[in-house]
């Protein structure tokens, strides 16, 4: 059954969530006058929405994974939808849709989008560039020859990654052979890990909508720097690149190749991260059959008229989503870390940000101070500038503004 926003029948939409919070109000995808949205989580109700999301009341049902079937089958199939934008719920969502009898919206070979080892094996076999990797199957073995084999195969540094995680969780850079051996000792006997060759270059991302076998380009962008290091006080961020640029064209071609290999069946958003090496070659790091996190979905709304998280949720429910169209506008997101013992001065720094026309969303750790042992994201910013080259100048100005830096508590 295909839903319609204009239908008079109310539909209950179950949004599955576990570890990745929603980055937008679900009512933006499913208006309250037509849908009853219930978030089903095996986490905590407080972590269903990212802290900076402004939303009305959200109905949340907490239940263990083995109870989700009974929760979602409590409604007749013709009055229910099941969706997710959580990496840790994609497989469960696909399975539950099958159980209820809803049309398949996720890729048939969903593991190709969830498991980094499976992903790289498929892409490498098709000639799509990926880093060389060593799968630690069936479990990590803390033997000297394991470390020696990894270093001789991959070189140094080595990147340790969980096979099925998101948001850089568990990722570590191992700079020398001693660090590799120490990492193996810490994870001895654990399943689900890989070691990967480090690829130097500029980090980028590319996003598209996949529906009816078509790949519709949305946006391509660059990251400010490595996606690790917030705990050490490094700011994270990224910005869009002009739709007509060579970078964008090559990124979209790479994304199309990735989806052609992993599967275009289904209706979903695809998000691919890659490295542009100094020699110009683009190397795929990972991909996901869901909308991206951080501020990337918001940038897509500015850049192409489509908010990616809203689009991904609606696509799964069979609802219409606009065709992405380049607006000519560029945007950037920044996450600002707060070191231990520091906070932002909302009165002083907020006033200065307002003078510059910058909307800073300060989180609790930014308002009340960081009493933890490492830096934490304390505020977020989305910047928009329509002038040629203006966005880069705006980003540079913000990074050097005194209010950007946290103050002692």
TrEMBL record:
SUPFAM superfamilies (UniProt xref): Glutathione synthetase ATP-binding domain-like
Coiled coil spans: none
Keywords of the record: ATP-binding, Ligase, Nucleotide-binding
InterPro entries hit by this protein: ATP-dep_AA_Ligase, ATP-grasp, ATP_grasp_subdomain_1
ATP-grasp domain segment(s): 120-317
Record-linked PROSITE patterns: ATP_GRASP
Protein name: ATP-grasp domain-containing protein
Native source organism of the sequence: Luteimicrobium album
């Amino acid at each position: 059954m295909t839903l319609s926003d204009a239908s008079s029948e109310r539909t209950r939409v179950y949004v599955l969530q576990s570890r990745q919070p929603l980055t937008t109000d679900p009512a933006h995808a499913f208006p309250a006058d037509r849908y009853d949205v219930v978030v089903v989580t095996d986490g905590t109700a407080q972590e269903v929405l990212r802290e900076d999301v402004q939303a009305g009341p959200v109905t949340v049902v907490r239940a263990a994974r083995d109870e989700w079937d009974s929760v979602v089958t409590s409604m007749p199939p013709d009055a229910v939808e099941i969706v997710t934008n959580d990496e840790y719920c994609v497989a469960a969502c696909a399975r539950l849709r099958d159980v209820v009898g809803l049309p398949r919206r996720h890729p048939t070979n969903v593991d190709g989008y969830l498991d980094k080892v499976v992903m790289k094996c498929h892409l490498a076999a098709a000639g799509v560039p990926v880093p060389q990797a060593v799968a630690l199957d069936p479990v990590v073995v803390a033997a000297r020859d394991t470390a020696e084999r990894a270093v001789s195969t991959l070189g140094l540094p080595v990147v340790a990654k969980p096979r099925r995680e998101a948001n850089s969780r568990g990722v570590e850079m191992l700079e020398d052979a001693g660090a590799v051996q120490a990492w193996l000792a810490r994870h001895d006997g654990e399943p689900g890990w890989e070691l990967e060759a480090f690829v130097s270059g500029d980090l980028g991302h590319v996003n598209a909508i996949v529906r009816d076998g078509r790949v519709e380009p949305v946006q391509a962008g660059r990251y400010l720097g490595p996606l690790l290091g917030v705990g050490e006080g490094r700011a994270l961020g990224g910005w869009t690149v002009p739709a007509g640029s060579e970078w964008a064209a090559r990124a979209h071609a790479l994304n199309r190749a990735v989806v052609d290999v992993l599967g275009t069946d289904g209706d979903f958003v695809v998000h691919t991260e890659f490295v542009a090496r100094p020699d110009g070659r683009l190397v795929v790091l990972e991909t996901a059959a869901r909308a991206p996190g951080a501020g990337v979905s918001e940038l897509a709304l500015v850049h192409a008229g489509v908010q990616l998280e809203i689009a991904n949720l609606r696509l799964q429910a069979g609802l219409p989503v606009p065709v992405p169209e380049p607006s000519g506008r560029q945007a950037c997101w920044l996450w600002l870390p707060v070191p231990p013992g520091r906070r932002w001065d909302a009165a002083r720094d907020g006033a200065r940000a307002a003078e510059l026309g910058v909307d800073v969303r300060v989180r609790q750790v930014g308002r009340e101070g960081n009493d933890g042992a490492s830096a934490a994201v304390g505020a977020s910013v989305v910047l928009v500038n329509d002038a040629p080259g203006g966005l880069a100048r705006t980003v540079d100005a913000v990074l050097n503004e005194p209010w950007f830096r946290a103050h002692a508590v």
